[in-house]
Write a structure and sequence with these properties.
Elements lengths: L4 E3 L13 E8 L2 E8 L4 H18 L7 H7 L6 E2 L2 H16 L9 H7 L11 H8 L7 E4 L2 E8 L2 E7 L2 E4 L12 H16 L3 E6 L2 E6 L5 E2 L3 E2 L4 E6 L8 E7 L2 E7 L4 E4 L2 E4 L14 E8 L2 H14 L1 H10 L3 E6 L3 E4 L4 E3 L5 E4 L1
Parallel strand pairs: 20-22
Antiparallel strand pairs: 1-13, 2-3, 3-9, 4-8, 5-8, 6-7, 9-10, 10-15, 11-12, 13-14, 14-21, 15-18, 16-17, 18-19, 19-20
Helix pairs in contact: 1-6, 3-7, 6-7, 7-8
């Protein structure tokens, strides 16, 4: 999930004093993260918010050798690894969506992700034998999670604990690997929202590489005719077939999370064929089901993050059922330039597309 979403219509002109904003951007979780606070964004609050992002990165990034996830991967087939309460929460939710999607979403997809290398410096189309070998290591049912336990000593890959071990995670077979790229940013956004609530922040926009959370009430733009008027946040959805920043429509929302999975942000081309990063855990190849993008709206950004991948992989019918079962809205954009949506909050603006409600 990358920057397929963006705010529509500037909030900066003719705003009330309460609507004036400040923003800060930093690299974290493998992407550019931007936080915009309205009504007084103090430096110390920005500091707390970004510090929290870096804490989560140190737990969940596969790109950091000393992260908890990396330690679990190195200990695959060897021994359980103690994990923080935060990582345990994410892994439990990941297992929930893996089961609910019949493996379309799978947190143990690491071997396949590493094999393709999409988004890295040297992506490639693997041969069939390589894919079959990687697929044999992708199975969420072989991720063991254990809750609170007491252990006198535990030492795995340099991580030592004594006495009470809050939780552990274990990949049963050597070569298995976690990759939480489809859920960790959502968890991070939810954690930032908790900090905003504690700080008494009234309005904010969190953008973690396209995982957007519109928090609180949108500051009202001033109209000479209507005075100050409360309005919803407007979040544009990228037209997958156009330049970045060209949107096909927008969602008009109160406080919620919006996450898109699409074929057009992380991809490479080999022998004239484009290969995107959303991998089918049944075939080992990128998903091919006629979809260009799926946008999910949900109160929980962690849920929206996981659902955007699962729903895309499942397709409109099964994916739509999964989204609805989890209280989420969905917007499906297809190669035939139709848009199917279960969200009444979506407005189509690009006349090249045709809207179909379901």
């Amino acid at each position: 999930m990358y920057a397929a979403l963006f705010l529509v219509f500037s909030l900066f002109s003719a705003c009330t004093p309460e609507g004036r904003s400040s923003a800060r951007s930093e690299l974290a979780l493998g992407t550019l993260c931007r936080i915009e606070l309205f009504g007084g964004g103090k430096p110390e609050l920005y500091g707390r918010l970004f510090s929290r992002l870096y804490e989560i990165e140190r737990m969940m990034s596969v790109n950091l050798a000393d992260s908890e996830v990396s330690r679990i991967n190195r200990a695959a087939g060897i021994a359980p690894v103690p994990v923080s309460p935060e990582l345990f929460t994410v892994l439990e939710r990941a297992v929930y969506f893996a089961e609910a999607s019949d493996g379309a979403f799978d947190p143990t997809v690491g071997p396949l992700v590493g094999l393709w290398g999409i988004g890295g410096d040297n992506p490639k189309v693997p041969d069939r034998e390589e894919i079959e070998a990687a697929l044999a290591l992708v199975n969420w049912k072989e991720l063991e999670l254990s809750g609170p336990a007491v252990d006198e000593t535990s030492a795995v890959d340099g991580a030592e604990t004594g006495g009470h071990v809050s939780a552990t995670a274990f990949l049963r077979r050597r070569g298995m690997a976690l990759d939480l790229g489809a859920i960790a940013k959502g968890f991070a956004a939810d954690e930032l929202v908790k900090l905003l609530r504690e700080a008494g922040t009234k309005s904010a926009v969190i953008d973690l590489g396209g995982n957007i959370y519109v928090y609180g009430t949108r500051p009202p733009p001033r109209s000479f005719l209507s005075g100050f008027k409360k309005t919803k946040w407007r979040v544009g959805i990228q037209n997958p077939l156009d330049d970045r920043g060209a949107y096909a429509g927008y969602l008009e929302l109160d406080e919620t999370s919006v996450v898109t999975s699409g074929v057009y942000e992380r991809f490479f081309t080999e022998n004239g064929k484009r290969y995107h990063h959303i991998l089918d855990t049944r075939t080992g190849f990128p998903v091919e089901n006629g979809l260009l993008a799926v946008t999910i709206t949900a109160p929980s950004s962690m849920d929206a993050d996981a659902l955007s991948t699962a729903v895309f992989a499942l397709g409109r019918e099964k994916g739509g059922v999964l989204a609805a079962a989890n209280g989420a809205g969905a917007v499906f954009m297809f190669e035939d330039k139709t848009i199917h949506t279960s969200s009444a909050d979506f407005t189509l603006t690009d006349t090249g597309y045709r809207l179909v409600e379901f």
